Give the backbone structure.
Amino acid sequence: MDTADLRGDYSTIADDYTVAQDWDAYRPAEHALWRRLYARQSKIIAGRAAPDYLRHLDSLAAADGLPRLDAVSERLNAATGWQLVAVPGLIPEDVFFAHLAGRRFPVTVWLRRPEEIDYLVEPDIFHDFFGHVPLLFDPVFAGFLERYGHKGPEAVALGGLDCLARLYWYMVEFGLIETSTGLRAYGAGMLSSKGETLFCLTAKEPNRLGFALERVMQTQYRIDAYQRTYFVIDTYETLFNALNADFAPIYARLAQKPPLAAETVLPEDRVLWRGRWARG
Ligand code: HBI
Ligand code: FE
């Protein structure tokens, strides 16, 4: 990974790519932007985000300004044994996996600029904190992430990185969950995005398909546009239990097949909604 192309300041990273957050360095205008982002996104996700996510987000009481990661980390550690570690931005996959396996979630320290309020390329502290941190307080979902991290080295060794990354993308960044009151969003990528929270639940264009591990690992995704397909789970335990599988034979099978385009719908898919963009 060439960090020179990335936006964060990697000049002070430790061996594990962590840095000091330096909370006192945030300017008043950044705290004001955080409050504006937080207030706007909280209104959008009401009634659309998974109930567990909302409960944990509220308990973080992070609306008034940029969070002190060390203080939240202490509360998180007491809840699920996880910690937050401050990073300058994206970090190499193997380092990322090692943090997750060690129950440490990397949180970017910089905040987007006002002109990026609706969209930015690299994840910032609002995406990482508002999007990812609440569900780290859910023991089952946190357990899934820890197991996911442990799958990293094998994926690197067996050439399964693309497949493992797809699992993260679809089920951690853009996952939907069925609840007694209907479909809800729990993925960090949609919940930290103004447009995609609305789009993912009600738009007619994308597919909404039942989660199936190997199917997700074979499916390509878009990083520059709304997703073409969302995968839906019934419970977080389904994700947790999916990691019981031996991934080696899956990587071997998928290495023999072309990846599926993001728009694909297969005959064997559990189709909750066949989108206008569907192919096949
Ligand atoms: N680094 N800080 C950070 N945050 C991520 O979400 C992240 C990363 N590096 C790699 C990565 N995600 C993805 O490639 C994972 O699928 C591994
Ligand atoms: Fe993310």
User: Anything to note?
Assistant: The pocket of 7,8-dihydrobiopterin (ligand 1) is lined by residues 87, 90-91, 93, 96, 106, 123, 165, 168 (CB under 6 Å). The chain has a mean pLDDT of 97.
